[in-house]
Design goal:
The protein has 10 helices and 2 strands. The protein has 277 residues and is mainly α. About 11% of the residues have low confidence.
Length: 277
Amino acid sequence: MRRAIVILPGAFTSGNLFFGIWAIVESARGDLVRAAWFIVAAAVLDALDGRIARMSRTGTQFGAEMDSLVDAISFGVAPALLVYFYQFRAGEWAWLLCFLYVLAAVLRLARFNVEQAGTAKSQFFGLPSPAAGMTVATFVPFAQTDFFLRYLDALWAWPVALAVLMVMCALLMVSLVPYPIWPRMGLRSARGLVGIGFTLAFLAGTLYVPAYFLFPFGLAYIAFGLTRAALTGLSERLPERDPLADDDENGQRPVEGIVRFRLARRRRRHGSGGEDL
């Protein structure tokens, strides 16, 4: 029984990778809406593997590293290729936009591993890659809805808007704009009850009207982080140091910093390390 619990987070991570690769395959085949839903499925499994690892205390450093590598595929490469086949395939250099998006996702995940992986988090610094990937991907089914085709299709040059969205998500992933984690749920506090209500509302929207719900929800999450940062400022929420600029003048990390970093990673191995919301 214990062995089954130990391998369960890894099984969900493998499922995340499975749907990420399948999304890439379906994008290449031209079934773009199906590819978008596979990215959503990957995000669901990504959220579950972290929670199971934390609840069962079976998280390992190997699992954390694997989770980040898989996220780079499912929420970096897969959404970028989906958008490429959807709108940018005809452009000679449009693939560079997809490259920049994937690069930002990889940098974001690398920084997350150094900065926040395995720790108890009250917020993320930078837009989480699953949120960015889901928002970009779910534009495709949203653009097929009757509401979009009737009221929004003629209002904007949507290929340009989609390119702007990808650039914005890329910049936010490597930024230090704070984004909230998923609300904690419980029956003993008002905050826990709010978390339950929020989760139930999200599940209802996802299950009953996913094409109408998920893309606007992703935009709202992105806008919330930007609005909160603008109102409260970034200075109160910045991490103690930026792991993207932690080298000394010779380009080497100090030995003392390496020791502290490794000890901290050993102490917090009970966490998942994943960037699940």
